[in-house]
Amino acid sequence: MLLGVLATSGWFDSRLLGAEQVDRQPESDRNARGWSQDLLARLLDTPEPTVDGRGTASEGMILRSYQLRSLRLGEPGRASNLVNILRRMLPPDSRVTEDRPGNTLHVLSTRAAQQAALELISAMDSEGDPAPTRPEPSVVPEEVRKALESLAAARPDSDKLMRILADVSRETEERVSKVVQQGQAETQASVRRMLLSGGATFAVLAVLAGIAGVIVVRRSQNRRIQSLAQQANALALVPSQGIEAVMAVSRDQQERTKELQKLMESFSISYQADRQRNAVLMESVAQKHEELAATLGQIDAFRRDLGERAGQFFLEVNREAIDHIIQQASDALQNRAAEVGLIAENASRKMEETANRLEVQNARTQVLAEELERTQQEVDALFQRLTQAQQQAQQAQCEANEQRRIACEKSAELAKREAALAGLSLLMQEPMNTILDTINHEAAQRGPDDAVGPAGDETVLPSATREDPAAALLPVDRSTDAEPEDPNSEDPTCLPPSTTYRIMPVA
Prior knowledge:
The protein is mainly α and 507 residues long. The protein has helices spanning 2-31, 34-45, 78-89, 111-127, 142-153, 158-204, 206-235, 239-247, 251-317, 319-446, 469-472; strands spanning 62-67, 95-99, 104-109, 475-476, 500-501.
């Protein structure tokens, strides 16, 4: 009996689940496209505004390149929707070009539109394509909505686009509220149906049917709640959930990506500007050639038409004037072509001159680098020579000091020998001095006329002074008023001071 009750409950559950899936099928088909496809369809349904053709296409336009990370160009889905939305939302005369091998978008538009396009591309590229098993949500993310409003403000039909964005947002909110209400109603209906099925089973077997009914009701409620939650996540994300999904992206990664994009953008802008100038010049040359060809064609057509209308007689009478006019026109066209060729030649010459200047500057830089290297080597060699000369001077100074010390020692030894010789001479002169003193004493007693000289003349011999023999060896200082010398000061000659030795005369 328990198996019969469980089988009956399972049959009721399968029937109810099949009915709910049949009821939800049309709504899922309507929401399968997602917000980007709905927005693109609404934008394509809106007619393009009429633009005055007197303006210039390149007036105020700049070219920027945006490389995608998550989206892949050429694949169906959000990438193609992004390209089509940009082509529809950008101001008139703007261009969007796809570089599929490099996965890069080249956008030519105004500066304000470029900023809004950057925000839109960053917002849609950060989310990436939705998984195949998970359809795209129907709610427009907050960042994408702001970027779309900025783009819409740069167009002449901004009011229409603003209304379209408001309609899309309102419809998505209504769709979400309808899905939530439908889920609540289905939950209540399923609970009621399960209660009815439980009551029918309770009629068969009261106790077992009641227990089985409670189990089935709880299981079915959990299943319905899970299915409704999955449906709400897959078909209609509420705005708060969309904002949380967008804000879940790492801020640091976005900042690094923006910095890299700015660097790549500046490089791409300079490179694209050069290419654009060359392309514009070549386009102008080609356009002038096309204009010349078109003018020649118009002249030929005019000539044929004139010949057909005026007839052979008119041509024969006025052939000279017509030929003159045609010749003038041909001359003017040739002059114009020559001017265009001259412009192209001047442009190529300027480019060659710029390249030559760069090569000359590079050569000068290399020469200066080589001269600097040679100068550095010469300075190093000179420093080494100076170091060696300083070492040699120090060595010579040491040798001179050693020779000065040896000379001082020899001078001191010589002074000692002179003192010894002076002492010996005094010892040898002592007897002769005694005799001379006696003679001089006697001559002094006799008178000054009685003194006898060494040559027989009557002269007075100079009397020898009676001094201490040791005192005769003492030096006589002739510079008594001079300042005393410093005993520690070194005499550069290492010679003894100027002295005079008193030596007694020898008879």
